[in-house]
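The records we work with from here on pair a chain with its fold. The integers have meaning only within a learned vocabulary of local backbone shapes. A complete example follows; check for yourself that the lines match position by position.

:::
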Amino acid sequence: VLSTSPVFDNIMEKSFNCGMDRILHLGQPRTDAMFEVKPSEHPFKKYNKVFIWMPTFRVTDILHESNATKEDCFLPLLHSEKDLDIINQKLNESNCLLLIKLHPIQRTSGFNLKNKSNIFFIDEHFLQNNKLDLYKLLGLMDALITDYSSVYFDYLLLNRPILFTTSDIEDYKAKRGLNFDNPLSIMPGPHIESFERLVEEMELLINNKDNYQELRQSLNEQLNKYVTRNNSRDIIDFCKIKVGV
């Protein structure tokens, strides 16, 4: 089991029911792809900035453990399509784009997933059609919006802005659980609890105002202590596998 930092050792031990002797301090191979992307691979290079929103799931056909309402469980903080229209207008005015990548098991029945002028819903078919995988796409993004998804640990490697939606953190903690007692302390970005604040923070990033660079770097050094840009090679070397001539 790979652990990118001693911070995660106990979590990995419990999650995978393995002893400490089965934990390797190495980076995740998937993050290598974030540093291999080329500008020519960018399907949205005409925009000034591109955000990606990756919420964790709240309601699925398998689980429904949240007290969230139908409106809240689709995307945090958004209560109607009108809210999405407000964000779309802001993005349109600044020639920016928002990609929304829902969790694969998020229930979407009853919701309108139709793209808007500056908001696109993407899935695995989109990635395949553009010859990308998720981590290559992340390497092209200017900012990430998420909540309690572990994807932000990987995105920290880029030291680019992260916005955290935290309006249902207590409910989420009670119903699904979190790995850290004080998760807000390791979330290096604004902790957003209202739709109005979300719009404000997005506007700040559109205008290149980022106040969290040092905090992200500091936490990245703690949470990705053993990560390099060649994690696949590091694992191959650890396993003493010879590749090529």
In short: Residues 81-93 form the longest helix (13 residues). The radius of gyration is 19 Å. The first strand starts at residue 2 and ends at 3. DSSP finds ten helices and eight strands in the chain.
